[in-house]
Amino acid sequence: MGKWTEEENQVIINNISRLSHSEIASLLPGRTENTVKVQAFRLKAFRKHSFSENQENKISTEKAAYIAGHFDGEGCLMMRFDGNVYKPEVSVANAYLPVLEMYQSLFSGTIKKHSVTVNKPVWSWRLFQYNSIIFFLRTIAPFSMEKREQILVLLEYAEVRVSKKKGKLDEATKLLSKECHEKLKLLKKI
Predict the structure, then answer these.
(1) Residue of 134, 165, 151 lying closest to 51 (CA atoms)
(2) N or C terminus: which one in the chain shows less Cβ crowding within 10 Å?
(3) How would CATH label the architecture of 53-189?
């Protein structure tokens, strides 16, 4: 279809945190899911965050405890295989969007509406960036009860991974990612 207009770019920026790429494409005649995905990347619509201790201190103890309790009940920690290595992901699915927007405002990440729901809309908040995951897990770990061991396993891996230089991963890091994946699977069965 050609060059992206300012209006099209604005549709992507305004909706990327709430809609899937295919849903955004449906708002843009002539654009496909893949072209929207590429343009969103070009626009840096998915922002990377790096958190400092100052930002960590801005979350009150009460709020951190609430989030930890909520995450214990509704959250998920996992390692997704990308064909080369397992990568960490943190997510929460919920029908009450304001809670997920609170997660996003405090920890970044994305919110997407599920395409298939039974009774009412369901949303997911997800974190993929290592620094955001570390910040989130450090914030809730002291208050978590049900998922504390999972949090510590994923936190340890994410911190090791961030300490490595970017680029091609060595075999030891790939093995560590697989071990983290296996530990999380076992902990979820307990």
Answers:
(1) 134
(2) C
(3) Roll (3.10)
